Automatic annotation (TrEMBL):
Keywords: Endoplasmic reticulum, Glycosyltransferase, GPI-anchor biosynthesis, Membrane, Transferase, Transmembrane, Transmembrane helix
MF annotations from Gene Ontology: alpha-1,2-mannosyltransferase activity
Enzyme's top EC category: transferase
BP terms from Gene Ontology: GPI anchor biosynthetic process
Major subcellular location class: endoplasmic reticulum
Keyword Glycosyltransferase belongs to the record: yes
Record-given protein name: Mannosyltransferase
Species of the source: Cryptotermes secundus
Membrane topology: Multi-pass membrane protein
Biochemical pathway: Glycolipid biosynthesis; glycosylphosphatidylinositol-anchor biosynthesis
Length: 337
């Protein structure tokens, strides 16, 4: 309930669960579930009590198990789709038969002595819904399975190889901005917090930490620059005092590279940086490309001195398409002094 605490993880509008997360998780079934709830609300407003499911019935129980938890979770301004995974059971129970191919099947149900029939028939509408179900799942599988934050895995394998090849007394520092933090298990590092025992000396010791990760979330790039400057000073101090070398990196979506250059030129921090590698594909919804900026005069004008490629759009639409595609990458930047 503390908004200040939730703001560290991101604040969302309270309607996000109903309008975005439910269709995102369950697509066709999610829309059917929301439509069914709206239909029940409409019947209640019209006082058509006989058309509502009994409170003691399984339909009433499953509908409540879908609607009430989402309604309660919508009170909190931090809303992620994964919070709604437990409502999968009532969604499938209530509406899966609407898209399944069941031909002329009749089921007889009993509820407190009252018998009634439910008939499932195969039709063109059901076939269309099933086709739409498959299509949406295929599209979302490609997007979330390979494109969304897709560069994080490639970055992890790249840094894991660098950890194996780096000098022994060298630590890696990675700052992530506007992207997911790096899964540390890919690096296969030993636990530096565990206490080890040296039988020769009879003393306990800890292994030196080899990798440091700093997640900046969606904080402004000015704050990211100041963080890099602070880390650079600390690493230089350790290098001079303890002879511990370092490598400082920043992982940033390619769509923010121009803003990063502009911010660096406006600040007085003494930073030297170079692009090590760009990992494709990578779509970060926190930093989508600004297509209006790419179409603006400063990017289209050949004579304008900006950080855009000057020939973009001036020579050929293919140049614009190429630059647009290049925005969907994850850039690894080496920071030096």
């Amino acid at each position: 309930m503390n908004t200040d605490n939730l703001s560290k993880h991101g604040l969302h509008p309270r309607y996000l669960h109903f309008l975005v997360n439910v269709p995102l998780l369950y697509n066709v079934l999610g829309l059917m579930s929301l439509g069914a709830v709206l239909s029940l609300v409409y019947r209640g407003v019209r006082r058509k009590w006989s058309d509502l499911p009994r409170v003691q019935s399984i339909i009433g129980l499953m509908t409540s198990s879908f609607f009430i938890p989402i309604l309660v979770l919508s009170i909190f301004p931090h809303q992620e789709a994964r919070f709604l995974i437990p409502v999968t059971l009532p969604v499938i129970f209530l509406h899966s038969q609407r898209i399944r191919h069941i031909s002329n099947t009749e089921q007889r149900c009993h509820e407190k002595g009252t018998a009634y029939n439910i008939t499932f028939s195969r039709g063109s509408r059901r076939s269309m819904l099933l086709t739409l179900w498959y299509f949406i799942n295929l599209v979302l599988t490609i997007f979330f399975g390979f494109l969304h934050q897709g560069g994080v895995y490639s970055l992890s394998t790249h840094l894991a190889a660098e950890m194996r090849l780096k000098p022994r007394l060298t630590a890696l520092h990675l700052v992530t901005s506007h992207t997911y933090s790096l899964p540390l298990f890919f690096l296969q590092q030993t636990n530096s917090r565990r206490s080890l025992f040296n039988r020769q000396t009879g003393k306990r010791y800890h292994l030196a930490r080899q990798f440091y990760s700093y997640e900046m979330g969606s904080t402004p790039l000015e704050v990211v620059h100041m963080k890099l400057h602070t880390l650079l000073e600390i690493c230089e101090l350790k290098k001079n005092e303890k002879r511990l070398d370092y490598r400082l990196y920043l992982a940033l979506p390619a769509s923010l590279m121009e803003e990063f250059y502009v911010t660096a030129s406006n600040l007085t921090a003494d930073l030297d940086f170079s692009v090590e590698k760009v990992f494709y594909p990578h779509v970060s919804t926190e930093a989508l490309p600004d297509i209006f900026h790419l179409l603006s005069d400063e990017c289209m004008n050949y004579d304008t001195q900006t950080y855009c490629e000057r020939e973009t759009l001036y020579l050929s639409p293919l140049k614009f398409l190429s630059r647009f595609v290049q925005q969907f990458g994850l850039t690894l930047i080496r920071i030096r002094r």
